[in-house]
Amino acid sequence: MNVYLMNQKLGDENGLRAITPDNIRHRVKLWKKYYGIVSDILAQSGFNWDASKQMITVDEDSAWKDYIKSHKDAKQFH
């Protein structure tokens, strides 16, 4: 049984949504968008990567507020 058919069968039996090539394309597109946003944030002064917490930190809240004023897509990362 190929992976596609197995995925359909498991999805149907367990009430899960089957993964399709369109789902994968959409997810990759979304990850690329998120990567671009995070990369841009880290390029700004006052933003840093905290390796122990695996997250972006900001030196001052005002820097974040200023950033999201001109980058509306980044607001979801607050």
From TrEMBL:
Residues 17-67 form the Myb/SANT-like domain. This is Myb/SANT-like domain-containing protein. It holds the Pfam family Myb_DNA-bind_3.
